[in-house]
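#random but structural
TW: two for the price of one
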Amino acid sequence: MTSFSKELSFRWSDLDPNFHVRHSAYYDFGAQHRIEILEGLGLTMKVLQAQHFGPILFREECIFRKEIKLSDKIIMRTKISKMKPDASRWSIVHEFLNEEDKLCAIITVDGAWMDTKLRKIAHPTPEIAVEAISLFPKSEDFVSL
């Protein structure tokens, strides 16, 4: 597997007054896809709550290359681009590609795992998180931190 992929379906509420996808909708699609991927890898909300940890973001950035309109067919591909060996810190990239496989936007997030009881970075990283995130496909320019 080279990436987790998902075809996006846009709603009227995802548009801005210029009739293209509003900037904040991209972040919503990225966040939803990350949670769906984690759920699929066994990191369900129940597991996260029971083990008192969850993902947190330090940075989220989107670079917009080509506008996306309501009827456009867009595939979002998600990969991991950076990670510490203990999976304590990581970066995930979401690419938004149109039917011609042209890059419309790219979101990069930098994150870690938080202990939800202590409200601090989880140390050590919960083993189930290490196992799940290590299953993420790596980007072509993957960097081990």
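TW: number two ↓
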Amino acid sequence: MKVYAEKLVETVVDKICDVCEESVMIELNGEKHEESGELSATFGYGSQEDGNVYHLDLCEECFKTAIYALRDKRRATFMFDVEKDLPDEKFGLDPKRSAI
């Protein structure tokens, strides 16, 4: 015998960028799709950030801003090091999982 009851379930209906506070959801062909990036870090013993956990949900534009800032930081750090391969426009892309 089956016994039925109503069950209230929470589901994510939107996600907001932690930087610009815009939705990361886009509508395509009448369906909503999540287009977001994440920046997260967990710091452990010995770090100045010991015990801190960071997590940011980012829209595509804010994620690109973060990636470009990190790429430029790397370029500036190793600008005169001829043995370092400086990042290009593919900086941060996972070659095994990216379409580019």
